[in-house]
Automatic annotation (TrEMBL):
Domain GGDEF residue range list: 364-503
InterPro entries cross-referenced by the UniProt entry: Biofilm_reg_signaling (IPR052155), EAL_dom (IPR001633), EAL_sf (IPR035919), GGDEF_dom (IPR000160), Nucleotide_cyclase (IPR029787), PAS-like_dom_sf (IPR035965), Rev_trsase/Diguanyl_cyclase (IPR043128)
Lineage: Bacteria, Pseudomonadati, Pseudomonadota, Alphaproteobacteria, Hyphomicrobiales
SMART domains hit by this protein: EAL (SM00052), GGDEF (SM00267)
EAL domain residues: 512-763
Keyword check for Heme: no
Pfam family, one: PAS_7
Keywords associated with the record: Membrane, Transmembrane, Transmembrane helix
Keyword match Coiled coil: no
Regions crossing the membrane: 12-37, 43-62, 88-108, 139-157, 163-185
Superkingdom of origin organism: Bacteria
Official protein name in the record: Diguanylate cyclase/phosphodiesterase
UniProt-listed SUPFAM superfamilies: EAL domain-like, Nucleotide cyclase, PYP-like sensor domain (PAS domain)
Length: 764
């Protein structure tokens, strides 16, 4: 198949042979006419026979072209293409040879100037026609040229007429020129075929990506409508159409807001004033460049929450949530938040509120019982979960009965709650530790009495841990931890017993307090440090940012994991001091780096509780270091965004106005709502490392990463994939559209000294 490199190019070249059947028919008929003309003028029968042969060949060639055109050839095999190629070649060669024979005889067998002239003109014209029509197969052109130029040249030389030899020489030069032109056109056709193939591949890739994006958009729980800069509809998903009772034809691309308002009213889902409110929300957002939200009620009774945000390209992003179920369940959720549905006792959260209220009273003296049923799992396993539920209800009833004034436990302000599972809490007024222990034994006795569960009678044992206030703490958390440690000791003592919090148990609490004191000392003396891990361009490995990670090297205990000391810092409020230090130190370190490299600092939900102080700490760090605010990135997690959303959003916007950028960290590890990406002004989304771990084997992880990348691109955000440890993972995320990556493949966290040395070595 000559020098054709692949099937597609071969198919395109062969297809070009059949691209103009009309010109082939015209040229063949012209050739037949020339032969007939010579026959008529000369009277020689040889021209008649040649005309007959040419006519037969012409009919066969027309039939070949007709059969080719009627068939599809995109999926044809190389052998199929080769058969069409050879069939065309055979017909063209026989026809050219027939015509060449006629030209030869016109010069040799006749003395008619008319025959000589018309055959010479015919030969030259056919040479040009072959080049134009058959350049896809230049070797065909050469064979066809030889089939009639060789006989023509031979006839000119044999005729021995004056100047015919010169004409023969001209024919040689002309034939060579046509061969050169044929190869040139062939190269152009090959280039065109390659370009067409690339275009088709690109179109197919775009089509697949669009299908993926459409699938993602149409499986969203929110209705989505994207508007262009001039406030015309670009994209809507199926959920949007469903919520507003619209058809695809109602909101085609290019639909204006005024047209959308009319469609919303015509769908009988919104009243004219409500539809007008939705459209005005969009226009107000565009004018003020500030997100807006509005709750509306549809004619069908649905409660819809409409949120409009600015998109990265200057357009608008409208999200519609059906909040009907959420609103309808609000009262139930409130009840569930405060009451255990099975036992009807206060749940752990409500009990904590009651405990805090009691501890806030002056001269408070109370005992907290942490009650756990022994081997409750065995009841579930042997008698079934239904029996287990009945057991819990009976236990709750008996504990409530103890509050009626019987025995040691006095009626009044005592309360019982369910902590969870088979664990209960009881709060009673006591005057001494001895009284608390006596009350605990009374609880053991009451719960040990046989219980009737269906057809079975069951006796259970219980373990109880007791903590006292004020002896064991004034804070609910401290008291609960003390009772928990006492319960652990009761379990260790063989169960079915009461254990009060003691000095031995306090050792564990003492260790925690020691850790807290050491942490405060480490913060005061500067024993904490920051290590930096690079965030790089996933394609070029060029460092774009470094994430600051806090480390604590204890002088006696060595490296303390962040998972151990950060919770202590948050619980004690020390996180504010540590966070301010980390911001300041990270900015000071980053000012010595290249201006294209930023620094990322994690900010916890605890720091956002005092948003004004956090904002002040950021401003101070930037002022002291002189760092450009655009080079500081604050990373927040999704857990921060589900509480006190308005205050959080206000703080983020305040810092954004001075140039500080924000990243959504660990996306996909927790609450994972696409609405967070749309609502909050993030410049970057960091996809959790769990997706990278399963990237090569899990198509779901790849699809999620690709969809997040596409949506982030639309909103003007960058995407970082965390946890990249292999080259294969890196290649996968690049193919899915991620711009940046972080992980051990690009470097482990380093202290600033080691990092600066690495930077200097790289620069050198």
């Amino acid at each position: 198949m000559d020098s054709v490199e692949n099937r597609e190019e071969y198919r395109v070249l062969v297809h070009s042979l059949f691209s103009s059947p009309a010109s082939m028919v015209v040229s063949n008929v012209t050739g037949i006419f020339v032969l007939v003309y010579c026959w008529v003028v000369s009277g020689l029968s040889v021209f008649g026979w040649l005309a007959l042969i040419a006519s037969f060949v012409c009919i066969l060639r027309v039939n070949t072209a007709r059969r080719y055109i009627k068939r599809a050839h995109l999926a044809a095999t190389v052998f199929d293409i080769w058969r069409w190629d050879r069939e065309f070649f055979l017909g063209a060669t026989v026809f050219s040879l027939t015509l060449g024979t006629g030209i030869f005889f016109s010069f040799v067998a006749t003395t008619s100037d008319a025959c000589h002239l018309i055959t010479a003109i015919c030969g030259i014209a056919f040479a040009s026609g072959y080049v134009a029509r058959n350049a896809g197969r230049p070797l065909f052109v050469i064979v066809q040229l030889l089939c009639f130029t060789v006989p023509m040249i031979a006839g000119l030389l044999v005729a021995a007429e004056p100047y015919y030899a010169s004409i023969a020489g001209y024919i040689v030069v002309y034939a060579i020129t046509n061969v050169i032109i044929a190869f040139s056109l062939n190269r152009n056709l090959l280039g065109l075929a390659a370009a067409q193939k690339k275009t088709n591949e690109l179109a197919d890739s775009i089509r697949r990506k669009n299908i993926t994006l459409d699938s993602a958009l149409n499986t969203m729980t929110h209705g989505l409508c994207m508007l262009s800069r001039d406030q015309r509809i670009e994209v809507v998903n199926s959920r949007f159409l469903e919520l507003y009772g619209l058809g695809r034809s109602d909101v085609e691309p290019g639909t204006t807001l005024d047209e959308l308002e009319r469609r919303l009213v015509q769908s009988h889902r919104l009243t004219p004033p409500t539809a007008r409110d939705v459209i005005e929300l969009c226009r107000r957002t565009a004018v003020l460049a500030q997100a807006g939200e509005q709750e509306i009620k549809s004619e069908t009774g649905q409660i819809l929450v409409v949120t409009v945000e600015m998109a990265g390209d200057g357009g608008l992003l409208m999200l519609t949530e059906d909040a009907s179920a959420r609103k309808a369940a609000a009262s139930q959720i409130e009840r569930m938040a405060r009451c255990d549905l099975l036992t009807q006792l206060p749940n752990r959260f409500r009990f904590a509120e009651l405990l805090a209220e009691r501890l806030a009273e002056p001269a408070c003296r109370i005992a907290l019982f942490y009650i756990d049923l022994d081997d409750f799992k065995g009841v579930n396993d042997t008698m079934g979960h239904e029996a287990g539920d009945h057991l819990l209800i009976e236990v709750a009833s008996r504990l409530n009965g103890l509050l009626g004034g019987r025995g040691v436990i006095a009626e009044g302000r005592s309360v019982v709650g369910r902590f969870g599972g088979d664990e209960f809490l009881m709060l009673i007024d006591v005057s001494s530790a001895e009284e608390a222990v006596a009350a605990g034994r009374e609880v053991l006795g009451v719960l040990a009495e046989p219980m009737r569960l269906g057809d079975a009678t069951l006796s259970i044992t219980t373990s109880i841990g007791i903590a006292m206030s004020p002896e064991h703490g004034w804070e609910p958390g401290d008291l609960l931890r003390a009772a928990d440690m006492a319960l652990y000791a009761a379990k260790a003592d063989g169960r079915n017993t009461v254990v009060a919090y003691t000095r031995e148990l306090a050792d564990a609490l003492s260790h925690r307090r020691e850790m807290e004191a050491d942490l405060r000392e480490a913060a005061r003396c500067g024993r904490l440090s920051l290590h930096y891990q690079p965030i790089v361009d996933a394609r070029t490995d060029q460092v774009r940012s470094y994430e600051a990670l806090m480390r604590w090297n204890h002088p006696e205990k060595g490296m303390i994991p962040p998972s151990e000391f950060i919770p202590i810092a948050e619980q004690t409020g020390l996180i504010t001091q540590l966070g301010a230090w980390a911001l300041r130190q990270a900015c000071l370190d980053a000012r010595n780096w290249a201006e294209t490299i930023s620094v990322a600092v994690n900010v916890s939900a605890s720091q956002f509780k005092d948003a004004p102080q956090l904002i002040e700490n950021v401003k101070d760090a930037l002022l002291i270091s002189g760092l450009d605010p655009s080079r500081l990135e604050l990373e927040v997690t999704e857990s921060l965004l589900i509480v006190n959303q308005e205050a959080t959003l206000d703080a983020i916007r305040t810092l954004r106005r001075i140039g500080v950028r924000f990243s959504l960290d660990d996306f996909g590890s927790g609450y994972s709502s696409l609405a967070y990406i749309a609502r909050y002004p993030f410049s970057k989304v960091k996809i959790d490392r769990s997706f990278a771990e399963h990237l090569t084997a899990d198509s779901t992880s790849r699809s999620i990463i690709e969809v997040v990348c596409q949506l982030a691109l639309k909103l003007g955000m960058r995407v970082v994939v965390e946890g990249i440890e292999t080259e294969q993972q890196r290649r996968e995320i690049v193919a899915l559209g991620a711009e940046q990556a972080q992980g051990w493949l690009f470097g482990r966290p380093k202290p600033i000294g080691d990092l600066n040395q690495s930077i200097r070595r790289t620069a050198a």
